[in-house]
């Protein structure tokens, strides 16, 4: 395997464990229709399936309406050029192709099937793809060696009436062209005037050259070099594809070509460019050194000799990363939505322009997160949008779809582009955006966060990621020898630098005993009892660290039942004045985020407790940027059926009405009434029906059962439960929480320590 860089926050073992855990691999197939009754099965298969079969037989285009074809892309490879590893065979390429399928789904809600063809004969590959193409709305070719990739793609474009896209070529070309559009704008240069040198003559380089020319670069101003030097007319032993870019010139070497060049694009190998070449370039040079993992010349070396350069690379640890993820999912999204027959040059140019223009707009918090808390602005160090920009899903597909319609590639018309953009924005799971926004704020003011069960594997991994992602400083509580053993177990050096604390530190122990004894001495606790508690209880130790200003926040739990952690916390940490301690879970699904409480603490809250919980939820909702709409839930809706089990909920509503609070609320009501707009006609008097985003549960059991069912079967994501009302920023991870869940809770604890005043 290639050598991992400092950017790779994982070990080989972690990567292997990731792929084998649970279901093997990274993708699965699910049903988009209910299949719970005999009638459902009859409609899905026999005899109901006969109806769409007959319709498609009469009109093949109806396959887009009656099947998944219109949202299905095949990711196809023969494994002849896998990443930077070379020809390792079709089966070895499957993890990569599955990964590509995952990206299609995650970033553009496109279903994808990976297909590995065990054949190196271009005609056989073409024939195979042709024969299965009717199943798909588009074909993404991946990791196929040149020149076969050119031959295969070109022939498929000629014989198929669906988009065929070789991402290694065109994805790179589109992102690079977008970057060049902005770089030229910043340097006050024009496509028609600049001299461009491209080093590397493979698939991606040739695609970039073609798109550059489509964007306005003059043919005689574009010089392409390969490992043997400049590609010029009359040069022997070059194939038909390279010869397309041969020009009349006396230049023979890369060194000669670089003199006076305005633009350099490297898609070749590390260290092939030196400082003298950079010095020889024109004023305000544009240098895209995109070889991976190491560029043709390091940006630091460029800056030593040219402070006027605009620089991009293929790496995320430098500004302006040329990353295909910005392009291919969204390009296919737009092409599929208009049932395009191809992805033509007009659509590529439209995508490049849309990407370029997006980088010029003010960025949202999700982008700030990706830049470590700094807000990037359009300029030399920000010419390409971040992969975490949530606007990509709206902007690029719309531009591609419009270009497809104007150029005649579209079979389907979109009448309202603005409505289409709104629909696109609602396709994706927003949980990533929520956490990116929180992380953006955390990075601005990093905190010292305790990971109490430091010897637990998932807790340890979360602590490491917390530090690596620059969210703050992680602190582990645990026996140092056991932590070091666990570090070795997860594939890291046992001497990995991370702060570890425990009760062997007498100075700290004495300080924490003194603090806690002062708190507990009037509750029947002797000093020796408190000393024993601090020595043996990680929660007591961690909460004392926060109280004594040795840390800012803590995440605990994971190895014990949630209730047990809560009981320990209540002994050593008070509630915030005027608040109830309760659990709140954020449930994030497509286009909707709801807060559910109390999910973890109070078994049967009184009406007064329900009111306090609702007020705290409103406060938290506003911290997360939501306008609160509170529904008090029950098995009844507005008194039907009325029972003693709903009385406390109705009482809470009546009492809250008298307080004239500054938020909308209503109840009691069933959850479907609270969340589904179809009930608004039945209950027109209520602002909450169909609009609720805070659900106040009538009892702990109903809250716990419903949120856990949602977590397992709901198709959304749960964040939390979050511990609300505690007098310190402490979160409790559920039993057997994953690394990601613990990491999210740690970020939220850090965020809480910054935005909530715990001194009152």
Distance between the termini: 55 Å
Strand order of the largest sheet: 7-6-5-8-9-10
CATH class of the largest domain: Alpha Beta
Let me know the CATH homologous superfamily of the largest domain.
Isocitrate/Isopropylmalate dehydrogenase-like
Share of helical residues:
40-55%
Can you tell me the number of structural domains?
5
CATH topology of the largest domain: Rossmann fold
Cα shape: globular
Please tell me the CATH architecture of the largest domain by its name.
Answer: 3-Layer(aba) Sandwich
Tally of contiguous helical segments:
30
Number of strands: 21
Radius of gyration equals 30 Å
In round numbers, the mean pLDDT is 86
What ranges have pLDDT less than 50 throughout 5 or more consecutive residues? 1-8
How much of the sequence is in beta strands? 5-15%
Task: Give the oligomer, counting copies of the same chain as homo and different chains as hetero.
Answer: single chain
Q: What structural category do the secondary elements indicate?
A: alpha/beta
């Amino acid at each position: 395997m290639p050598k991992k860089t400092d950017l790779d926050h994982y070990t080989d073992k972690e990567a292997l464990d990731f792929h084998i855990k649970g279901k093997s691999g990274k993708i699965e197939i699910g049903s988009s229709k209910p299949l719970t009754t005999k009638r459902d099965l009859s409609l899905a298969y026999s005899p109901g399936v006969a109806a769409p079969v007959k319709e498609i037989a009469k009109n093949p285009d109806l396959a887009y309406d009656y099947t998944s074809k219109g949202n299905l892309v095949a990711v196809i490879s023969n494994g002849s050029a896998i990443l930077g590893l070379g020809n390792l065979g079709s089966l070895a390429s499957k993890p990569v192709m599955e990964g590509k399928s995952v990206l299609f789904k995650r970033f553009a809600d496109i279903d994808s099937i990976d297909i590995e063809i065990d054949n190196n004969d271009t005609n056989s590959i073409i024939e195979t793809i042709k024969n299965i193409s009717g199943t798909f709305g588009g074909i993404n070719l991946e990791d196929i060696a040149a020149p076969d990739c050119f031959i295969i793609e070109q022939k498929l474009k000629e014989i198929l009436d669906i988009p065929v896209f070789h991402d290694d070529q065109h994805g790179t070309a589109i992102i690079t062209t977008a970057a060049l559009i902005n770089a030229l704008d910043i340097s006050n240069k024009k496509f028609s005037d600049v001299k461009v040198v491209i080093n590397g003559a493979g698939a991606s380089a040739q695609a970039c050259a073609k798109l550059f020319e489509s964007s306005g670069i003059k043919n005689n101003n574009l010089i392409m070099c390969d490992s043997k030097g400049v590609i010029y007319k009359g040069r022997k032993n070059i194939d038909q594809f390279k010869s397309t870019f041969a020009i009349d010139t006396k230049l023979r070497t890369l060194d000669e070509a670089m003199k006076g060049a305005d633009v350099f694009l490297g898609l070749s190998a590390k260290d092939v460019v030196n400082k003298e070449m950079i010095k020889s370039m024109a004023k305000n040079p544009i240098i895209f050194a995109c070889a991976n993992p190491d560029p043709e010349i390091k940006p630091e070396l460029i800056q030593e000799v040219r402070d006027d350069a605009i620089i991009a690379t293929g790496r995320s640890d430098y500004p302006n990363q040329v990353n295909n993820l910005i392009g291919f999912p969204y390009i296919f999204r737009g092409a599929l939505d208009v049932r395009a027959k191809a992805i033509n040059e007009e659509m590529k140019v439209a995508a490049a322009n849309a990407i370029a223009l997006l980088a010029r707009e003010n960025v949202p918090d999700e982008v700030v997160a990706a830049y470590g808390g700094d807000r990037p602005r359009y300029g030399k160090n920000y010419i390409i949008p971040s992969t975490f920009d949530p606007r990509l899903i709206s902007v690029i597909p719309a531009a591609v779809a419009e270009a497809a319609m104007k150029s005649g590639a579209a079979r389907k018309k979109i009448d309202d582009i603005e409505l289409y953009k709104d629909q696109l924005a609602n396709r994706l799971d927003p949980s990533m955006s929520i956490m990116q926004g929180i992380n953006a704020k955390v990075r601005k003011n990093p905190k010292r966060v305790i990971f109490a069960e430091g010897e637990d594997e998932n807790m340890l991994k979360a602590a490491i990621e917390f530090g690596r992602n620059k969210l703050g400083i992680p602190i582990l509580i645990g026996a140092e020898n056991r932590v070091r053993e666990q570090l070795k177990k997860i594939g890291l050096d046992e001497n990995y630098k991370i702060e570890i604390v425990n009760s062997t530190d007498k100075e700290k122990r004495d300080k924490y005993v003194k603090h806690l004894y002062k708190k507990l001495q009037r509750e029947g606790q002797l000093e020796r009892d408190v000393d024993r508690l601090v020595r043996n209880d990680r929660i007591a130790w961690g909460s004392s660290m926060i109280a004594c200003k040795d840390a800012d926040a803590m995440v605990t739990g994971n190895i014990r039942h949630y209730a047990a952690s809560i009981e320990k916390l209540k002994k050593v940490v008070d509630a915030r004045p005027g608040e109830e301690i309760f659990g709140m879970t954020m449930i994030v699904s497509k286009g909707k985020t709801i807060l559910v409480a109390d999910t973890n603490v109070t078994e049967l809250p009184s009406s007064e407790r329900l009111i306090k919980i609702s007020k705290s939820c409103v406060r938290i909702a506003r911290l997360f940027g939501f306008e609160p709409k509170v529904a008090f839930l029950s098995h009844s809706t507005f008194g039907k059926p009325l029972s003693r089990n709903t009385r406390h909920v109705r009482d809470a509503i009546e009492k809250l009405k008298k307080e004239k609070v500054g938020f909308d609320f209503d109840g009691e009501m069933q959850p479907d009434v609270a969340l589904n707009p179809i009930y608004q006609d039945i209950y027109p008097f209520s602002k909450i029906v169909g609009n609720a985003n805070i659900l106040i549960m009538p009892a702990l059991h109903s809250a716990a059962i419903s949120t856990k069912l949602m977590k397992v079967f709901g198709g959304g994501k749960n964040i939390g439960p979050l511990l609300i009302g505690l007098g310190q920023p402490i979160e409790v991870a559920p039993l057997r929480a994953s690394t990601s869940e613990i990491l999210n809770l740690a970020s939220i604890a850090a965020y809480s320590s910054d935005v909530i005043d715990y001194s009152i």
